[in-house]
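User: Teach me something about this protein's shape.
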Amino acid sequence: MGSLPLLNSLHKEIVHCRACPRLVAWRQRVAQEKAPRFRDWDYWGKPVPGFGDPSARILIVGLAPAAHGANRTGRIFTGDRSGDFLFAAMHRAGLATQAISVSRDDGLALRDTFIIATIRCAPPNNLPRPDEIANCARFLDREVAFLPHLRVMLALGAIAWRACLDHLTRAGSAHPRPRPRFAHGVVVPVGGLVLMGSFHVSQQNTQTGRLTPAMFDAVLASAKLHAACSAVHAD
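Assistant: First, the predicted structure itself:
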């Protein structure tokens, strides 16, 4: 049995998860109350599974669905400013078929890239608790297991960086000691993968200039290079 049916089955399981009462209550409240500008939308209001190319060599790991972004549209980084920045950059890098992502049926497809969130439900104030991150870790582990060609993990922000390191530890991959610290542009070989870090594509970073399009373009170019080199070495 190929990995795609198993991945689809896992995504159905993710969508029906109710493991974190605080997150369930919040995502449903947001979906019912809505933002005035989205009052005509039928909000998703459920956990958000990963999205992308099942043959991907590059995995991008974000923080969580935005309350009026992915929690509304049902697709990660879709319908918010963070996604606008991310997919524009991915399109420039040749990793996405279009530069915008507004809904699940907008025709966007990813090339050689898969995107997931550390937390699959929108958290209040965009701040998940440690126990909620731990509850979602099983989905990270299983989703990665269904990406057989993965070579690079790109963590957006410190929480995603820790989640990636925790996953690699659980998977039995030895990493350098002391434990690698998050920084923008950091690259750490871990087992048979390359772990990379970038500032998150949030408005807090992109509107203040902490993360510029040129900076993120460089990160994606580096991810593509490491994915290609790792594939050659694996062969």
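Now, about its shape. The radius of gyration is 17 Å. The longest strand covers residues 193-198. If you'd like, I can walk through any region in more detail.
User: That's plenty for now, thanks!
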